[in-house]
Amino acid sequence: MNKLFGEFLGTLTLVAIVVGSGIMATSLSQDVGVQLLINTISTVFGLFVLIQIFAPISGAHFNPVVTMIDLIERKVSFSQFVQYTVVQILGAVSGAVLANAMFGHPLIESATKLRSGGNLYLGEIVATAGLILIINLLVKQEKLMLIPVMVAAWIGSAYFFTSSTSFANPAVTVGRTLSDSFAGIAPSCAPRFIAAQILGSLIGLGLTKVLTNDK
Predict the structure, then answer these.
(1) Is residue 99 within 8 Å of residue 184, measured between CB atoms?
(2) Which residues, at least 6 apart from 189, have a Cβ–Cβ distance to it below 8 Å?
(3) Most buried one in 28, 90, 91, 97, CB count within 10 A?
(4) DSSP 3-state helix, strand, coil percentages of the chain (rounded to 5)?
(5) How far apart are the C-alpha atoms of 139 and 60, rounded to whole Å?
(6) How much is the pLDDT for 182?
(7) Contact (CB, 8 A) for 127 and 136
(8) Nearest to 47 by CA among 83, 113, 95, 117
(9) How far apart are CA 3 and CA 1, in angstroms?
(10) Each residue's pLDDT tens digit in the chain (215 positions)?
(11) How far is CA 33 from the centre of its chain?
(12) Are 66 and 135 in contact (CB under 8 A)?
């Protein structure tokens, strides 16, 4: 139960950081570049801290595709995968509600920000493939202590170099549908984002196996 609660609390906090900083960004500036910078800085620092403190407890997945890759690699059972995914999604929804509450928004909002198009889906594939590749290579190289900083650095970089601003996480994507802010994504756009993330994660795993000669 401590592992499941760790995943719930970690994902809740991560989405609260992403959504909360997105709301704050729009209240501080009308410049989209400044808004993205605020959102990125907050996410990078928050993600680093969360991975660092929760990794010894739950593995600090906070992300269904990370858990899915562990399932494929037989590091977790199917029941563990289901349990982790459920609490990650519940945590993401709770995090969005918390962020909305902190800024006086309706607890449940429906995002209106449209994010669609092949270029954005490609961005999500690249962001998620890179995330999985980094995690798996560091694990195989036995450099676990570097994972918090490397993952945070990758996500921060991908916020700016990918067209989609690097969601790279189905649970976070679900949470962001509940915020009508800079960080939001319209519910109608979420399924294709999630499909791109799943594809990207499989590509990341495939690249790991090629680079490590792992069958």
Answers:
(1) no
(2) 114, 115, 116
(3) 91
(4) 75, 0, 25
(5) 14
(6) 86
(7) no
(8) 95
(9) 5
(10) 899 999 999 999 999 999 999 999 999 999 999 999 999 999 999 999 999 999 999 999 999 999 999 999 999 999 999 999 999 999 999 999 999 999 999 999 999 999 999 999 999 999 999 999 999 999 999 999 999 999 999 999 999 999 999 999 999 999 999 999 888 999 999 999 999 999 999 999 999 999 998 76
(11) 21
(12) yes
**Mind listing the domains of the chain with CATH numbers?**
2-212 (1.20.1080.10)
Q: Which structure tokens are listed for 21?
A: 């900083």
Chain-wide mean pLDDT for the chain? 95
| Residue partners of 171: CB distance under 8 A and separation at least 6 | 11, 15, 62, 63, 64, 85, 88, 89, 91, 92
**Which structure tokens are listed for 95?**
């995090």
Query: Which residues, 6 or more positions from 191, have their beta carbon under 8 angstroms from its beta carbon?
Result: none
